[in-house]
Design brief:
8 helices; binds guanosine-5'-monophosphate; alpha/beta; single chain; Rossmann fold
C-alpha cells in the first residue's frame, strides 16, 4: 500500500480554486491518481451548491461534536464559520492507492504541513490576478457587500502567507492555470 501524497490547494475565495479543480478532475490522468475530499462546513449553502457535492453542510453543534470525536484530519474557523476535512478521505486514498487533494484555507494547510509526519505534503496557492478581479468574481457570486469586504480583507492576509507555500499559480488565464495545476499534480503523485 502506498502512502498518499496530500496536495493542499489554498487561496482566496473567488480566486478560482474550485473551477480549476472541477476541470482538472475531468482528466483521466488525474482521476486515476487522485481523489478529492469534500469538506464539512457550518456555512449556509449558496444557491448553486449541492449538499454532499460541494460540501457537507452541517450545524455548528454537529460540527463541534464531530470535532470532539476526532473525526477531522484538520479543521479551522474561517471568518464566521467552521470548516473541516474528514479523516476518512485520507483512509480512502490509502485504500485506493491514490493521492489526496484538499481545498482548504492557509491555516489548515500550514497546520497539516507541520503535523503530518509520514508521506509527502505539497502546498499550492492559487491567487487571483488582482484585488479588482477578486472583487468582480465575488460579486458575481451574489455575496453581500459585507461578506465581500470580509473575504477581501482575508485574501490580503492569505496573500502574505502564500510565500510559505511550495508553489503559486496566478489564475489569470484559466487554460494556462489548468495546465500548470495538472503539471504540479502529476509531478507530485505517489
Ligand atoms: P468558502 O466559504 O468560500 O467555500 O470557503 C472559505 C474558505 O474555507 C476557503 O479558503 C476554503 O478553501 C476554506 N475551506 C474549505 N473547506 C475547508 C476545510 O475542510 N478546512 C479548512 N481549513 N478550510 C477549508
Amino acid at each position: 500500500m502506498k502512502i498518499p501524497t496530500i496536495v493542499i490547494l489554498s487561496g482566496p475565495s473567488g480566486a478560482g480554486k474550485t473551477t480549476l479543480l472541477n476541470k482538472v478532475f475531468r482528466k483521466k490522468s488525474i482521476k486515476e491518481n487522485f481523489i478529492r475530499s469534500i469538506s464539512y462546513t457550518t456555512r449556509t449553502i449558496r444557491p448553486k451548491e449541492k449538499n454532499g457535492r460541494d460540501y457537507f453542510f452541517i450545524s455548528k453543534r454537529k460540527f463541534l461534536s464531530l470535532k470532539r470525536q476526532g473525526f477531522f484530519l484538520e479543521s479551522q474557523r474561517v471568518l464566521d464559520n467552521y470548516y473541516g476535512t474528514a479523516e476518512y478521505f485520507y483512509e480512502q486514498a490509502e485504500k485506493e492507492n491514490k493521492n489526496l487533494i484538499l481545498c482548504i484555507d492557509v491555516k489548515g494547510g500550514l497546520y497539516l504541513k507541520k503535523k503530518k509526519k509520514e508521506g509527502k505534503i505539497v502546498t499550492l496557492f492559487i491567487a487571483a490576478p488582482s484585488e479588482l478581479d477578486l472583487f468582480k468574481r465575488l460579486k458575481k457570486r451574489t455575496e453581500t457587500m459585507r461578506t465581500i469586504q470580509k473575504r477581501i480583507a482575508l485574501a490580503k492576509k492569505e496573500m502574505k502567507v502564500s510565500r510559505l507555500y511550495d508553489s503559486i499559480i496566478i489564475n489569470k488565464d484559466l487554460s494556462k492555470s489548468l495546465k500548470e495545476l495538472e503539471k504540479v499534480l502529476l509531478e507530485n503523485k505517489n
